[in-house]
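User: Can you write out an input/output pair for a complex, sequences first and structure second?

Assistant: Here is one pair. Inputs:
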Amino acid sequence: MFSCTDKMDFNQYKSISNEGWKAHEKVLFEFEVKDTISLKNAFINIRNNSTYEFSNLYLITELVYPNKTIVTDTLHYQMANELGAFLGVGFTEIKENKLFYKEKKIFPIKGIYSFTVRHAMRKNGAEIVPVYSGSQTLVDAVSECMRYWVSNCDNTHMCVGSTVGPNIFVKICGWSTAQISRELKVQLKSEFKKIPNKIKLINCVGGGSSAYGFWSEFIDYDKKQIELIGVEAGGPKKSKLHAAPLSRNAKIGILHGAASYLCQNSEGQINDTESISAGLDYPGVSPIHCFLKDTKRARYTYATDEAALDAHVMVTKYENLNPSLEPSHAFAEAIKIAPKLSKDTIIIVNSCGDAKKDRDILKERLGKR
Amino acid sequence: MASLINQAFQNAKNENRPALLTYTVAGDNTKKKSLEILKSISNYADICELGFPHNTPIADGGQIQTSAYRAIKNGIKINDVFSIAKDFKKSKKTKPIILMGYYNMIFQYNENKFLDKCKNVKVDGLIVVDLPYPENKKFAAKCKKRGINFIQLVSPTTSSVRLKKIIKDSHDMVYYISMLSTTGGKLKVSPKKILERYSKIKNQNKSKNVVIGFGITEKTIKSLKKADGLVVGSAICKEISNSIKKRQNPVTNVTNIVRRLKNKIEI
């Protein structure tokens, strides 16, 4: 804490154990205030190293006055720039961040103040509820999610993790995932000085959230400059079942509060789908992608389970990447078209998932690796 | 001439009780049995709702889902639903029947073809769960043109502005969903509160018949008897499941339940 004359009033550091800052661990500081008139600036100094997993930081602070009044704040700080470089100061991998807590604040009461801070960064804080209804696949999970929402919509928002469902939820999800393309644009400009003349953006499409997120900033570009290619799940080579409503000409149907191309039978019953990748195993697709197909802005194709597995093997062999089975579908298309393209064409594949989650399937299909 | 649905409500009113509406799934557990059930329970029910089963029923809880899956597994097709309705109407000419289901099946069948077929087999009304207001305006108008009642749904979270519009565009019957829930949930709102909201809807236009559904069982039906009508669905579907499990005749068991429900609102 500094007075506005830059005289330091109080300065204290506490170290956090090597296991990391636990979710509910509060860090306590106590300090005495004697001067109740002049303005003070208070900072939270945080040191992080490169193992910090986020580009931002949420802190929840509690300031307890000597008279036991409690002031709670939720603070949000940017920790890295758009390219993922940390903003803190330091020549080694340890970066020091001087974060504003209170600017020009008067501490009106003399005595001991206590200040606690905990972070609010959560990776997997959600409660996971297994689905037992229907065929127990993604379509049933979305149905169950909607049923829960129908029953609790007075205090609960629906956040299906894809651009499917009723209108507004498609938009909320799409707006969020669009961050991928906002970052890609910055990265393209820093790599090539400008947006190159021939780009192909290849992404897998299940519900279509990562594809929409990957393309969002580039949809307004001419398709001759930036081609958008969506790769759906073609299912096993020998099976009639698939999850590729766009590329295998399914009819339009209504599911989960939206109209889209939909794998269904002539009665309007939703078809079973089949794909090696759980994330693409959805009979419908985002209405946004139906629009991009109808307007011919994006091109949709599919890759079979086998093609995706082959692509996974090739990519992990030659690149420092470990794509999950979903983006492996996109890599399959990239590998397929690359030999026919001119040298100045730039292919960008969104490797939108890590194969850790697929280790059991990969082991089963590819043997010990 | 007043619609059969209106007449059914009037008859119940004359007897100083709410109308009893039942919901069963067409083809549950077989095509023949579901027709038998329908005919038998219509001796006590005032209006029969017949569900055309969909395999992704997002508004339905476990009981009705089970019934729907069972019916689809037994090979029921939309044309079978029409033939059940037709057979039913042959023997019960004045008993109103309402088809209920999800919009995709109507959309795939073709709206006009579906409604012509409904008119042909003398279906009196339609409830389309996932075709909300105002998206259902055109479809409702098409129903009206063919003398079919389109039944609008309102819920506890329907705003008063929206409620006014829905009531204005509604036909003879309005369906009030008692609580935020899928079908077959436990009644989590007090009957007093439900009836308070019910009166708000009723007061918009006294000539509309407002029914209450969701969470209504033998235990709860009596407490809501001030309404124009009460719908029981999951409790009936559950009884069909139980009967199959116990290898008993679902027709008798379900009829017994409906008779008991009727007794509870008569006194």
